[in-house]
C-alpha cells in the first residue's frame, strides 16, 4: 500500500502542518505532504513547507470567490491529492472548490461540534468559560461536504478541560497541543483504512 498524498491548505503559522510533517517523517503516518497552499504569501506555513522540501504555493485573494476557488481547485488537483487537509485555513470554500474533491476535504477546528464556529474560537470559549457558560471546550476534525463553516460529519473530537488557574495563553497552549495530536490521529485513521471491495 503506497503513501497517501496529502495537500494541506493553511492561512497562518502552520503548527498543525508541522505536526503532520513530523508524523510523516517519523514514520507514524503512512502519508506524504505533496503540497501546501496558503492564501497569505507571508504565512509561516509556507516556510515550514519549504524547510521540509514540500512545494509551497501562495495564492492570495483575487477576483470573485468562484474565480478564486476554481484556480485554487486547479492548483490542488495538479498535486493529485488523496486527502485535502484544512489546517488553519481561514477562507470559506465554495462548492466551486469542494465539488471537485467530494469526500476528500477535512477541516480542523478548535471547538467541539456545534460550538464557536468561525474565527477566534479559543478566545470565545475562554470568554464563555469566564461567564460561567461552559466548563470545558475541545477540538474536532470533520469532513467538509459543503459551504457550512466548521460543520460536517465528525471524524474525531477531543474534550479539552479548562481550569480555574488558566488564562487565555495557557488554554491556548493546551488546545494547540491537543489539536496537533488529534489531527495526526485522524489522519492515521484515514490513511490506514482498508478499502473494502
Ligand atoms: C488552529 O487552531 C485551527 O484549529 C484553527 O486555526 C489554527 C491554526 O493554527 N482553525 C480554525 O479556526 C478554523 N475555523 P496553525 O496555523 O498553527 O496550525
> Which bin fits the share of residues in helices?
25-40%
The largest sheet is: 7 strands, mixed
Low-confidence segments, ≥5 residues, pLDDT <50? Answer: none
Distance between termini?
15 Å
The distinct ligands, each listed once, are: glycinamide ribonucleotide
- Coarse shape: globular
Q: What is the gyration radius calculated from CA atoms? A: 17 Å
Strand order of the largest sheet: 3-2-1-4-5-6-7
Count the beta strands: 7
Determine the strand fraction and express it as a percent band: 15-25%
H and E order:
EHEHEHEHEHEEH
Average of pLDDT: 97
Number of helices: 6
SS-derived structural category: alpha/beta
Key structural traits:
seven-stranded mixed sheet, alpha/beta, 37% helix, 197 residues, binds glycinamide ribonucleotide
Amino acid at each position: 500500500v503506497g503513501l497517501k498524498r496529502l495537500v494541506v491548505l493553511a492561512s497562518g503559522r502552520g503548527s498543525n502542518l508541522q505536526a503532520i510533517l513530523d508524523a510523516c517523517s517519523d514514520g507514524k503516518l503512512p502519508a506524504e505532504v505533496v503540497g501546501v497552499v496558503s492564501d497569505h504569501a507571508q504565512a509561516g506555513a509556507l516556510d515550514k513547507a519549504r524547510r521540509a522540501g514540500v512545494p509551497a504555493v501562495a495564492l492570495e485573494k483575487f477576483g470573485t470567490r468562484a474565480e478564486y476557488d476554481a484556480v485554487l481547485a486547479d492548483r490542488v488537483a495538479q498535486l493529485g491529492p488523496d486527502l485535502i487537509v484544512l489546517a488553519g485555513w481561514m477562507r470559506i470554500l465554495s462548492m466551486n472548490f469542494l465539488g471537485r474533491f467530494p469526500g476528500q476535504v477535512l477541516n480542523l477546528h478548535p471547538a467541539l461540534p456545534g460550538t464557536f464556529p468561525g474565527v477566534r474560537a479559543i478566545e470565545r470559549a475562554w470568554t464563555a468559560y469566564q461567564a460561567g457558560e461552559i466548563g470545558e471546550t475541545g477540538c474536532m476534525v470533520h469532513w467538509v461536504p459543503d459551504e457550512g463553516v466548521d460543520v460536517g460529519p465528525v471524524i474525531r473530537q477531543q474534550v479539552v478541560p479548562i481550569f480555574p488557574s488558566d488564562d487565555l495563553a495557557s488554554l491556548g497552549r493546551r488546545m494547540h497541543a491537543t489539536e496537533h495530536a488529534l489531527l495526526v490521529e485522524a489522519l492515521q485513521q484515514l490513511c490506514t483504512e482498508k478499502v473494502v471491495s
